[in-house]
Write the structure tokens for this entry.
Amino acid sequence: MTAVAAIAALALALLPACAERADPESSPDASIRVVATTGMIADAARAIAGDRAEVRALMGPGTDPHLYTPTRTDMQRVLNADIVLYNGLLLEGKMGDALDRARTAERRVVAVAEKIDPEHHLHPEELEGEPDPHLWMDPVVWRLVVEAVRDVLIEADPDGADLYLANASAYLAEIDALHEYASRVLALVPEEKRVLVTAHDAFGYFGERYGYRVMGVQGISTASEAGVRDVERLVAEVVDRGVPAVFAETSVPDRNIRAIIEGARARGHAVALGGELFSDAMGERGTYRGTYIGMIDHNVTTIARALGADIPASGMAGRLDD
Ligand SMILES: [Zn+2]
């Protein structure tokens, strides 16, 4: 143990023990402990590692990663983990200190979205050269991140390589099926209606992959508030294009989206609330929407139906009815 790690361990020993109660997520047989920031990354790690790792997501359903500040318990989990997986590309705006401390304590800390070939990153004007962090919105790009998660697990635990490879290939096949479904149903929306208006700009990769124009009231991060002008600009777009529906997000307050609906109505255009999308967080743990596949299936099905595609509400494999 290095001096730094010893200090970190000592600091942990001094923390009150009350945080460590019996924990339904802990798996006693697991040989490695993985902590992931977002649910989407944790879902990949769980699918690939199975019982071989105990995987935790720091950010639960409805949590906004741009604004999320780690708790003391998170800090403890990060420092106790063998592997810490985070998205990177500045998604976790307030996790910098926690990740630095984990690195100092010689944990294996990996920004998974930064492990893929940068040619897959989108560079929206707003970010002035920085890449858009919302990679999970395009299953074709996200599968590369899943491969990166698999490779980190193999590197950390080579004895589990066969299991990780087999599980990853099954999970990647599900992601491929998801992409096929998304391509098919999103193409059923009339071309002029392929406009996605949401609370913040999380859907750039989605738009790029499936040929949708995407517009968020807030920018790529939720850290800066939208102004009256942002709302007015979008109201004008919605009215001019005759957009039939706009969408709220589970991890962002819906007041701006409601303001657009009201603004459009005041100008004589009725626009519906098309539903609530999962942008930066998945649904409840233990439900279909609480998985990456379920999250994207829900989004794709909700968007396609609200914008005019005649497809079943039950989604890709009938599971959205659960
Ligand atoms: Zn976001």
Notes: Residues 3-182 form a domain with the Rossmann fold fold (CATH 3.40.50.1980). Residues 161-186 form the longest helix (26 residues). The radius of gyration is 21 Å.
